Amino acid sequence: MPRFDTPLHTNDQSIDRVLNTGLPVVLVIWRDSLDGSLDETLRQIAQNDAGRLLVARVDASANPQTAARVAGPLPALITYRDGQEVARAEGVTSATAREHVDFLLGRGPQPQARPAAARAAQGAPSKPVAVSDASFQRDVLESDLPVLVDLWAPWCGPCHMIAPVVEKLAGEYAGRLKVAKLNVDENPATANAYHVQGIPTLLIFRGGRVVDRIVGAAPEPLLRGKVDAALRSA
């Protein structure tokens, strides 16, 4: 394949093709303009690691589908290997860009995630939040972020089986996805409104509407795939 030694400019139509070229990809999503220092760092990375990775840039203003991969501050950097996300940073700087590239190419440790305190400051909880019939409108239907709602009950064995996965997703997707838990025994109105007949039932909301439904203790890869699909189409 061609050896690219400068950042590529891609878009919603070609992004999947870029991510599946066979090389690791550093995807930078930006809006309006890039800081000069970060822009120069990306050029240096593309030149120095030509043949080992691709650096791709997407203007969020003109490419809403790709922009939907990020809910936090721009510019954002997402690294991919074999088409799968490896790591990401939002509000990225030159230093964090280099850290993520080194990790992607096996030259350095995994970059540190933003502290929980920083997430909380942006109103993005890193743990599931309890919601009720009374708070459902505010906490789920009016949420600025997509919401994964776990409808459960204390006596439900499969609900306890899936709970660690739900909690894990809340931490990993903090800032992009809100994760909520609703006890159906204590909040039957919401369960009835969404025709929940078996638990656990997990509903994914975006813009106040259900975009996906998972019934039963789904395996983590399936649940993660459903979440990723909902975020991509947000």
Q: How would you explain this protein's 3D organization?
A:
This protein has a 5-stranded mixed sheet, with helices on one face. It has a 5-stranded mixed sheet with strand order 6-8-7-9-10. Helix 2 runs parallel beside helix 4. The protein is α/β, with parallel strands linked by helices and 234 residues long. The protein has helices spanning 15-19, 36-48, 64-67, 94-104, 116-121, 136-141, 157-172, 188-193, 220-232; strands at 8-9, 25-30, 54-59, 76-81, 84-90, 129-130, 147-152, 178-183, 201-206, 209-215. The protein has 2 domains: 8-104, Glutaredoxin, CATH 3.40.30.10; 120-232, Glutaredoxin (3-Layer(aba) Sandwich), CATH 3.40.30.10.
Topology, element by element:
Blueprint: E1 8-9, H1 15-19, E2 25-30, H2 36-48, E3 54-59, H3 64-67, E4 76-81, E5 84-90, H4 94-104, H5 116-121, E6 129-130, H6 136-141, E7 147-152, H7 157-172, E8 178-183, H8 188-193, E9 201-206, E10 209-215, H9 220-232
Parallel strand pairs: 1-3, 2-3, 6-8, 7-8
Antiparallel strand pairs: 2-4, 4-5, 7-9, 9-10
Q: TL;DR of this structure?
A:
By secondary structure, this protein is α/β, with parallel strands linked by helices. The chain has helices at residues 15-19, 36-48, 64-67, 94-104, 116-121, 136-141, 157-172, 188-193, 220-232, and strands at residues 8-9, 25-30, 54-59, 76-81, 84-90, 129-130, 147-152, 178-183, 201-206, 209-215. The chain folds into two domains: 8-104, Glutaredoxin (3-Layer(aba) Sandwich), CATH 3.40.30.10; 120-232, Glutaredoxin (3-Layer(aba) Sandwich).
